[in-house]
From TrEMBL:
Position of the signal peptide: none
UniProtKB keywords: Amino-acid biosynthesis, Aromatic amino acid biosynthesis, Chloroplast, Plastid, Transferase, Transit peptide
UniProt-listed InterPro entries: Aldolase_TIM, DAHP_synth_2
Main location group: plastid
Protein name: Phospho-2-dehydro-3-deoxyheptonate aldolase
Family classification: Belongs to the class-II DAHP synthase family.
Length: 256
């Protein structure tokens, strides 16, 4: 007897309808559909084959998650704020703000990434190393978005498959540092950790972690995403427009 088993149907469900809101338990029921092919050879050399399908008992994986779950994990790059009460007040204010990303947006991206995992699409991800308060303006956001769109078009024609373009934008502030301190001309100060934590100017006041920067960072997150949504839904990202950008660039290169 020869038996071949094929399995794998996964259902994902969650109690929480909003992304970024804590206090939920995520359940991952795994229902295994098993198809079995039995091949039997009888004495008279007749081969009989039968196919049967069954479902195994579902097993459930429970993942307990909350907004404070991360506090139980080891962390070595968290800033030390001088005023704990001010930090607590700022965090409370931030929690009261509307979510930056909505669940449907995350679900749509998840479906697209699944296609990339099965080699049905190509994933393009890019952005600057870090965002800053100083360079926050519509022109910079537009130019970065435009470059990503142009790269996506080139890859689409080259790879002959859909391209999923992901911009690391609206939140690329904090920077991991190999050293906690920076030394210049014999002066030792805490390292610059990103505009949402402290300033890049090399002076004692700028390098003190300031929780007020978290409020400004949130506002920049929202402003960046709102502009990107306007670009994608308002016709700026239309294929005809992006293709024309590439043609214009090629013409300028030829003239040079």
């Amino acid at each position: 007897m020869m038996v071949a088993a094929i399995s794998g149907v996964v259902n994902l469900s969650t109690k929480n309808p909003y992304l970024g809101r804590g206090g939920t338990t995520t359940r991952l029921p795994l229902f295994r559909q098993i198809t079995t092919l039995d091949v039997t050879k009888r004495c008279n050399s007749t081969i009989v084959a039968s196919v049967s399908t069954s479902f195994s008992s579902p097993s459930t994986i429970q993942i307990n998650w909350s907004l404070d779950s991360w506090k139980s994990k080891p962390a070595q790059q968290l800033p030390e704020y001088p005023n704990a009460e001010e930090l607590k007040s700022i965090l409370k204010t931030n929690v009261s703000f509307p979510p930056i990303v909505f669940i449907r947006e995350a679900m749509k991206l998840e479906d697209k990434l699944a296609n990339a995992a099965f080699r049905k699409a190509f994933l393009l991800q890019g952005d600057d190393c870090v965002e800053s308060f100083k360079e926050f303006n519509g022109t910079n956001i537009r130019d970065t978005f435009r470059v990503l769109l142009q790269m996506g078009v080139v890859l689409t024609f080259g790879a002959q498959m859909p391209v999923i373009t992901v911009g690391r934008m609206a939140g690329q502030f904090a920077k991991l540092r190999s050293n906690l301190f920076e030394v210049k001309d014999g002066v030792k100060l805490p390292s610059y950790r990103g505009d949402n934590i402290n300033g890049d100017s090399f002076d004692e006041k700028s390098r003190v972690p300031d929780p007020q920067r978290l409020i400004r960072a949130y506002l920049q997150y929202v402003g960046t995403l709102n502009l990107l949504r306007a670009f994608t839904t308002g016709g700026y990202a239309a294929m005809q427009r992006v293709s024309q950008w590439n043609l214009d660039y090629g013409l300028r290169m030829h003239l040079i």
